[in-house]
Amino acid sequence: MILNTTHHNSDSKQIISDLVGSPFSLVQKLKMKGVGSKRMIIDEVSPNLQSMMNLVSDINYGNIELRPKGILIRINKGLQNFTWIIPYYHLVIYKINGSSIHAQGKFVHFRANKTFKENKKFFDKLMDEKVKYDFHHAMPNGL
To answer: What is the mean pLDDT of residues 23-31?
Structure first.
């Protein structure tokens, strides 16, 4: 699900909380040593996300925020902000010349550059959180 989060909207906040959980508390953020990535350059997106990209040759930026049950990918288009809500059970990550995040029939590919390399620890943390979520919510054998 993609929301326009340029302006504060309590309905959007509730939808995000329902799908991926409320934001981590300050204590949890400190224990995890942060829950957000640095800004990364978006190289490519799926055709159904093209409307969120700058039409001129501007660079598109995005960042990722961890939530208890998923992630938020925040994309800036000029003065507008869009948030793509991805529960962990939809999330698939490919590491090919950067990182490509796939879910719900859409994808965002982040460029492998200096800022992407600075986010290596963040992506490791993201994978750890997804594995923990999958482990705790796995179906018992035989079902």
So the answer is: 94
